Amino acid sequence: MTMEIASARTAVAKPPAPGLISRRVLGNVALGLVLLAVPFWLPLVGGYTDLASRVLIYALAAMGLNLLLGFTGGLSFGHAAYFGLGAYGVGLMLKYETHSILLALLVGTLVGGIAATLLGPIAVRRRGIYFAMITIAIGQMFYFLAVRWNSLTGGEDGLTGFSRHPIKLPGLTVPMGSVGFFYLVLVCFGACALLLWTVLNSPLGHTFVGIRENYKRLIFLGVRTKRYLAISFAISGFVVALAGGLNALLDNFTSPNTLNYTLSGDFLIIAVLGGMRNFWGPLAGAVIFILVRDYVSSITDNWMTVIGLIFVLSVLFFPLGILGFFNRKSAS
Asked: Does pTM surpass 0.90?
């Protein structure tokens, strides 16, 4: 495997210059400070904390998908399946087994992540449109299972009867109001972002990018590309499942819609809108998507028309995404 990774690294670009690295570090630090202060400055501009939590949750799901889509080159229309499995895992645990939201999050993440790990090798047996169609079929299988299994999932009415509980630590109880829950989401978002950053800057991440850039060349070099595609699929599934669990906690509710391919389409829009090949692109896309949806939906039920128009304009004039456009401008 070590020789395969070394071969794959020849298919990717040279590492960035030291000056660019320092700018990235400063940018990441500034982003972290802005996110930490969200509960203090967001109400001053007319926002509310739960909106910020939803932005981070959708950004986390899109970042998980983007590992497969933007960095490995696999187009999935079924990642809402793992998002929904994570949500149902959390909801069922809190409803029937425990009041610990940390344990429920762990179980929900494992349910969605293990499903992605088991189903990924099946999906990656095909490439291109066939891969995308397999992911849709898998996702819809879980969707209809949730719709039909009324006794467990609540069917089309969704799963209710669970709620957030305070996190009890040794000598400390953390309430899970809007602000407390936002910081839980932020911790999960930061941990997953660090994990994805580490993976993408490791030899494994270079292999993912090599698969995206020159799939056939890596096969000729002897790299077992399907194995690495399955690994990317699995990591992506775990991250998306965690986001789904957090989404269930945010709403104290989940439904089959969290498993539907339409939500997978939302994640794709978010990733493409912000910039698929930019690490923070999904976060930028989530900010635009959630803010537009929140504002426009208060005016009209046809908010998806506005999202669609923004998406079309972005693809036409910003094919690298919003962050990709600004990064190219700053580099020129």
From this structure: yes
Instruction: Give the other-Cβ count within 10 Å of 287's Cβ.
Output: 19
CB-count exposure of residue 306 (10 Å: 0-12, 13-18, 19+): middle
Question: Residue 304's Cα: distance from chain center in Å?
Answer: 20
C-alpha angle 183-187-189 in degrees, rounded to nearest 5: 110
Secondary structure of residue 77 in the 3-state scheme:
coil
Q: What is the tens place of the pLDDT at every residue in 28-53?
A: 899 999 999 999 999 998 889 999 99
> 169: part of which helix (H) or strand (E)?
strand 167-169
DSSP label at residue 174: E
Give the H or E element holding residue 125.
none
Sequence letter at residue 106: L
The torsion region of residue 74 among left (phi > 0), alpha (psi -120 to 50) and beta comes to beta
